[in-house]
Write a structure and sequence with these properties.
Elements lengths: L1 E5 L2 E6 L1 H12 L5 H8 L3 H13 L19 E9 L8 H5 L5 E6 L6 E7 L2 H15 L1 E7 L23
Antiparallel strand pairs: 1-2, 3-5, 3-6, 4-5
Helix pairs in contact: 2-3
């Protein structure tokens, strides 16, 4: 068994079989209970109960579709670091930027910047417009890194071992 943490909460000890289920679902959120049962050696009803329990405990928070951003007209990905212009101002940038749907993720970070935003837009011009909206809405300065390519993304975590492939405690 191993302790799993979600956000700032520890959810207690999780059995090896639950870690296997979480790993399988992280790799394919549409995996059927039948396939999960086959992969774990449990019955379909036992897998169903375990998945529901993992959902109730907050280990599994939801399921989502992975999109081909090129195919939907959002081929340009960038990371935008933001820093308040007035360091004494309230730290409410995430709230001020929540309405901008081009922002895919907002991460609070340590370092010179306060947050790093992952954004997806249609073109360099759209990125320029978004940067202006970000600066205006949150009263921040920005530093932008444009993504050239993404060799991999959305990798499932390895919950079966520790650092460098060592067995979990």
């Amino acid at each position: 068994m191993v302790t799993i943490r979600v956000g700032s909460r520890y959810l207690g000890r999780v059995e090896e079989i639950d870690r296997r289920i979480v790993t399988l679902l992280a790799g394919d959120g549409r995996m059927s209970f039948t396939d999960l049962a086959r992969e774990t050696g449990l019955s379909v009803s036992a897998v169903h109960q375990r998945v529901r329990r993992l959902e109730k405990r907050g280990v599994l928070r939801g399921y989502t579709a992975l999109l081909d951003h090129d195919a939907i007209g959002l081929p340009l990905t960038a990371f935008v670091s933001i820093k308040p212009i007035d360091p004494a101002a309230a730290d409410d940038a995430p709230d001020r930027l929540a309405h901008l749907s081009a922002i895919e993720a907002c991460h609070s970070v340590a370092g010179d910047e306060s947050y790093i935003l992952k954004v997806r837009v249609a073109s360099p011009l759209a990125l320029e417009e978004l940067l202006n909206q970000i600066r205006t809405a949150a009263n921040v300065s920005t530093r932008t890194t444009v993504v050239l390519s993404t060799p991999y993304e959305h990798r499932a975590p390895d919950l079966t071992g520790g650092p460098a492939g060592e067995p979990a405690p």
